[in-house]
Design goal:
The protein is α/β, with parallel strands linked by helices. The protein is built from 9 helices and 12 strands. The protein binds zinc ion.
Length: 288
């Protein structure tokens, strides 16, 4: 199962580079509908086959992480309802990274839910610009701008209905890339849950990037940081990064232990993306 994850990660690097617009073939293939499901405890999957969206429920209202493409929004809202929750009960919208495949649906979702948009200081700027002036993609991947109601810095905690979501700013993929961590109770066990932003650098200019001079230092810091998290449930912004399809099949076949508990898969992902980053850095540094 985990062996399949690694080739998929490299596929994603290529696909991200080749994605031409929001309506490209690749984007459509990432936006296929998935029957929503409970991952563990109060954490639910409401996203598409590759572009993820997570609902964290509490008695005081819910939290939604990521809005997918603009075209993902009808799936997300329908999935929330299918699970028996109300769209209007979503109180906070969070974002892993201010890139169009995870942020383009947020403006519509904000209108539909009436929720408050929370984002890191740096990604809030890119969200407000609708993706304009991305340090690596320029104006290539634009989306409906969304205004952040409250910005936060690394380590900030969102508390709602007895749960705490911690914002870990793991910069590099975007300047304010946010990896959220929380805990959930499942089958009498307390589990550490991680929602990885991303540690990939698809087509990125690491050497001499004038729009993001500190990009290498940020990635270095992020890789160090990623290895310190205690992880049981491994989730990420892209479903293939944590092998969702295979894990979901196991879950639906009545697996005795929750297949989403995968601390080894998490470390494998971090190490594989770190190696890709170092290879890219070495090849760019070697050029005159
Ligand atoms: Zn991205």
């Amino acid at each position: 199962m985990r062996l399949k994850v690694l080739p998929l990660i490299s596929t994603i690097f290529l696909l991200v580079i080749n994605a031409a617009s929001q309506a490209s073939e690749t984007d459509r293939s990432w936006n296929q509908s998935v029957e929503p499901f409970k991952i563990a405890g109060n954490v639910y999957y409401v996203g598409a086959n590759e572009i993820t969206s997570y609902l964290i429920t509490t008695p005081k209202g819910h939290i939604l992480i990521d809005g997918g493409f603009k075209e993902t929004v009808p799936q997300i809202t329908a999935n929330i309802v299918k699970l028996g929750f109300k769209v209007k009960d979503v109180k906070y919208l969070l974002n892993s990274q201010a890139h169009y495949d995870h942020a383009a649906g947020l403006a519509d979702l904000k209108k539909l839910t009436g929720a408050k948009m929370l984002a890191s200081v740096e990604d809030a700027k890119l969200l407000a610009r609708g993706g304009k002036g991305d340090p690596n993609f320029g104006d290539q991947y634009l989306f409906d701008p969304v205004i952040t109601d409250k910005t936060f810095s690394d380590g900030w905690e969102l508390k709602l209905g007895g749960i705490t979501m911690t914002a870990n700013v793991t910069a590099g993929h975007t300047k304010g890339c946010t990896t959220w961590t929380t805990t959930t109770e499942d089958a009498g066990k307390k589990l550490n849950v991680i929602f990885v932003c991303s540690t990939t650098a698809p087509g990125y200019k690491l050497v001499g990037n004038e729009k993001y001079p500190e990009i290498v230092a940020d990635f270095e810091q992020t890789f160090k940081r990623m290895k310190t998290f205690k992880v049981d449930i491994f989730l990420s912004a892209h479903a293939s990064q944590f092998g969702m399809e295979d894990k979901l099949a196991l879950l639906r076949n009545g697996a005795r232990t929750n297949p989403f508990i995968d601390p080894d898969g998490y470390l494998e992902f971090v190490n594989a993306t770190e190696k890709a980053f170092r290879d890219r850095l070495a090849s760019q540094s070697a050029k005159p």
